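Researcher: Re-running this chain for the archive, since the previous output was lost when a drive failed. Same request as before.
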Amino acid sequence: MASVLTFLTGAALLIYSAEKLITCLVGLARGPAVSLFLLGLVFTGIEIDDLAFSVVLNVEDLEDVALGVVFGTVISMTGLALAIAAIVAPSRVEVPKDYVVLFAAAPLVLVVPALLGELGFSFSIVLILLFVLFVVRVVHGESRRAVPPRSAEPPAAGLARSGWVLLPSAVLASFAVVTGAWVMAKGTEGIQERFAIGGTVFGATAATLVLSLEDMFLTAEPARRGAPSLGIGNVIGSVVFSVTAKVGIVALAGGALVITPEVFTWHLPSLVVINGFAAYALLTGHLRRWHGMVLLAGYVAYVTVGLATAA
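Model: Regenerated structure tokens:
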């Protein structure tokens, strides 16, 4: 019972803090010429809570769970977060094609370590540098866009302030979101003991669902409130971060990650397919409900097969 209460407390803190963070980011973009897409990528796409959780797992010699969390969370970004945003609030999106191409191709960087069966020091550094280059490309691209994407999006409801004055509040809200996710993760430890699900499958399913609540809210709520670029920045940033810098940092912090055969035969192909369809949906310029339904069906199939094969 205590674990359930801990989980619910963390969920409440996370949802409240995420709501405040969204309001702050929209207001922040109304002052200086900073795009919502870039703010979403930096503030919510670089997932400190997921990273910390995965690092701790690998340090504690639970590398199979850590790897499952990496794949589970990145697939849930499109299969759950983007899917629910499309179903709840279909919207027009304007994302430069080169961003979408990089987003679609990002999972392919894991093919080499998957074939080798291990992610070691050298390739971990390469992955981190690739993410840095991606961020530099986006910053450069957003600074040169003729019409900042924030201009077509209405201000958030109830927003009284705008501009850099909201930056401290956005940082505080970001920390509160991470704290809420951490409390939720602690609650799941007691809940996990009652079920016999282990290794990569637990990380890719149960743990992922906990961590994904934050991402679902941070993607769907901006779209519902008329600021879809913020949520799209979160999705694209999270996917690229997860398959590059996140997995690289996890390997550096806890030792080389052993890539199990199921990663190459199931998790990575599933990621490439689901992510590829999400890229197609973004390229159409209009996220529609049927896009969300296809993505959600793909995610359900991924989880179902994963659980069935582990039984």
